[in-house]
Structure to design on (212 residues):
């Protein structure tokens, strides 16, 4: 289960969101060229709402799958002798929580609450920064090849975070949106390939698990 909630689930999430964005943003750009106010289109609003709900649901599934799996910490952060309990699962949960907050903001933005329009991109940027921060320290004390692969992944994470942060001030910029989409597709493929490699090489997975 730990491999699933740590690699396969985020891989499916990033790939699904990336594919969705790769279709949504070109269509939005074409509609805007026809002078149509896409933000007031009810079908586009429904799509934004479903996207936000999907982020929240996947975040909850990731957190609960890690916490309540047979080998999970079951919401225990440390033992009676004050030693940490399965910090790897807690770091995964922190990443899911950050993306879940971003999905919640996506749901609240269309509502008449007076939230600033760039808040959704800002929350996405902070979720990517949290992921990058955890990813950087996640590679410590691992074999050199794993450290190298994780450092390459940081390029995609930081690239997506930078695009999202720029979109706070440069709204509806097609190049930034497509670049962010590319970073998500790259992340999704990386997570799934990592999971496939673990499945095909149980010895490597056991060694990495011992060093995590």
């Amino acid at each position: 289960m730990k491999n699933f909630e740590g690699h396969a689930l985020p891989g499916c999430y990033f790939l699904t969101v990336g594919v969705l964005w790769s279709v949504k943003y070109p269509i939005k750009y074409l509609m805007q060229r026809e002078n149509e106010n896409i933000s007031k289109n009810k079908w586009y609003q429904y799509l934004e709402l479903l996207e936000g709900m999907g982020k929240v649901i996947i975040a909850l599934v990731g957190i609960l799958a890690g916490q309540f799996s047979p080998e999970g910490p079951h919401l225990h952060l440390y033992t009676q002798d004050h030693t940490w309990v399965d910090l790897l699962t807690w770091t995964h949960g922190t990443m899911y929580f950050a993306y879940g907050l971003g999905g919640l903001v996506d749901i609240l933005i269309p509502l008449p609450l007076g939230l600033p329009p760039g808040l959704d991109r800002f929350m996405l940027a902070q979720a990517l920064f949290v992921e990058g921060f955890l990813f950087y320290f996640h590679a410590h004390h691992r074999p050199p090849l794993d450290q190298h692969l994780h450092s390459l992944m940081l390029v995609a994470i930081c690239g997506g975070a930078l695009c999202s942060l720029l979109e706070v001030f440069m709204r509806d910029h097609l190049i930034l949106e497509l670049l962010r989409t590319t970073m998500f597709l790259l992340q999704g493929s990386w997570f799934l390939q990592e999971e496939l490699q673990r499945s095909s090489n149980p010895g490597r997975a056991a060694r990495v698990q011992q060093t995590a």
